[in-house]
Amino acid sequence: MVPTRSGSALGFIKPMLAEQRSAVPRGDEWIYEAKLDGYRVEAIKQGPSVRLLSRNGNDLGSDYPEVVRAVAALDVDALILDGEVVALDSRGRPSFQSLQHRGKASLPIVYFAFDVLHVNGEDLRALPLEQRKARLAEVVARSGVQLSESLRGDVDRIVGAIQQLGLEGIVAKRRRSRYTSARSDAWIKVKFLNRQEFVVGAYKPGLGSFESLVVGYYDAQSRLQFAGKVRNGFTPHLRAEIHRQLTPLETDVFPFAEPGTRKRSHWGEGLTADDMHILQWLQPRFVVEVAFVEWTRDGHLRHPTFVGIRRDKHARDVRRERAASDAP
Q1: Which domain holds residue 53?
Q2: CATH code for position 149
Q3: Mean of the per-residue pLDDT values for the chain?
């Protein structure tokens, strides 16, 4: 639903998505922001009512009541913001793992707004980004909603600072770009850490739940390609919780494009003939985020580590991304 005038119902707007590149674009036509490590969230305020929607349009309001309160307190009657919900660690840095485990500690949950799409009956999507940014700064000034600031200075210094802080990457946006509900080269993301989403296609039973998750990604022909086995990054509590969510997805149908082989290597391993008799296959619907050292020549993940569950991503949208370690 597209908002057209004051008083009409405000509906979810599909988000604008960035293309991934291996190098940060340069030039005066670009502005730069830190790539925040959290959940993409659209905040819709209409009167006293506030909704928080994931990039797929799922309601997240009950998960982040502190964000609902912050948006509700804004001195605007009708509003649509685009931004990221993040958990801040003890050093004030966004931490996706902390966001996953927010119930275990009193970590601050913050909403960083990086765009504004609608204000009091006015659709702003056709305005250049730099004008939307100016309106956004006015809307969230002196409030509990944080502004995702444009980074100033030389590109190399910006990149160096982001890397020194250990942040995930950078997003470059064309100053005069309009907001379009599609993936666009007007927004470019560059990752400095090797992390991406994967679909869980199986697990190896053990340890009272599972020993490892078997993950993959969809290729251009919509086939699920095996990527690796993830053994590290799980606590006993997390294993039990993930296993609980995977159990309803159990199936006898092999979900991957290729059957098991006997091939193994020092840096990675494929699905072996033995695996075919041990692993519990799953309907490929569950999405997780994984950190890894690099892709091997065989197309497998080297030293993958579990980072978190991605409830905000559709499994069919998961593709292999360019890793930070890949050559341009």
Answers
A1: 17-191
A2: 3.30.470.30
A3: 90
